Amino acid sequence: MTHARRQLAGKNDTPNELPAVISAVAGVSVATLIQAHTLVPYDGAVVGTVNTDWCDESYSSCQLRSRGTSNRVHVRALCPMCTDEDLRFWGFSYWRRSQQIDGLVWCQKHECPLFRTTGQGTWQTLPHELLDKARPESDAVLADAIENPVLRRYAETCAELLHRPRPLVSFQVLRSLIPRAYACGLVVEQRATGTRLSDLAVERISGPWQQLFWKELSSKAPGAYLPSLDDTLVRLRSGSCHHDYALAFALLYDSVDEAFNDLQRKLPTYRSLLPLLNVEAARVPRYAAARRKECMENRPERLRLAVKSVLSGATLDAAARAVGWGGNSVGRMLAQCLVAAESFTPREATGIACSPVQTPV
């Protein structure tokens, strides 16, 4: 592979990036390679920029491709039955990407435990070569993962994220998750007091699986903010980790179909958001006295320009810088408008009284 990379690096029309090298050797497009043969769609399941994908030239996409095609690995998982089937059909076994997702402990095809092998190595060592050294998950962890409905939804959600053709946008995710959280009686803002998403997780998934994969839940005080999970309700930039979102979906929705039908809805258009943006711009922000120039000068025009830029594909920070604001300010106001848009009707003109949605970025 190194030799192939060096050869291809000499061609001006071929980027010296591992996915490009692999795609050239395998004779498939980079997009096909990324979407069908790597963990990149799962690792980059939620992104912070509208109209992006895993194959563009943005820094975040390049980083995702680099991690998703790394050859070094410490923990690998395999299903003995899948390995045997592959040997008999193909004459060799291969690592199934759906079995390498953090927190998945059973083969969804055969409903048997996955075996794990640890130690430094590469993906070039095939599953059947390590089967004798691999060990299954414990019966307690396996039973918990199969019998707990939240954990079954978690596994199904992970599979759905892995096979998506495009990433979700964090704006879509927040617009869907925040109303669900409020409907469950949860608080969202970090400074708020009450029951959080992480408290719901403690209630619903405490057990052997949680103690293995979410140890931090075991020591969490009631009402305490747990960034790894509670950030899924507030973060607008690059998003939390993929498995955090998967668990959030599993906790707040009764089925995977319901969750992704909700998430598939298109974002509101800039024009449809205008009345809400005007109301948000007229609201006196917190700490206005300390940052009066940023908060008050040409506020409606600046907010509209920033939001239009974000919805056109600019990053949150770039859109905010262009109008002289901070990304946190624009993100907070946009999140409030997106959530408020769920219950907004055209009859409610610019005088609409929106109750604040406390959603920091």
Automatic annotation (TrEMBL):
Domain (TniQ) ranges: 11-114
One Pfam entry name: TniQ
InterPro entries, per database record: TniQ (IPR009492)
Superkingdom classification of source: Bacteria
Protein name per UniProt: TniQ domain-containing protein
Source species taxonomy: Bacteria, Pseudomonadati, Pseudomonadota, Betaproteobacteria, Burkholderiales
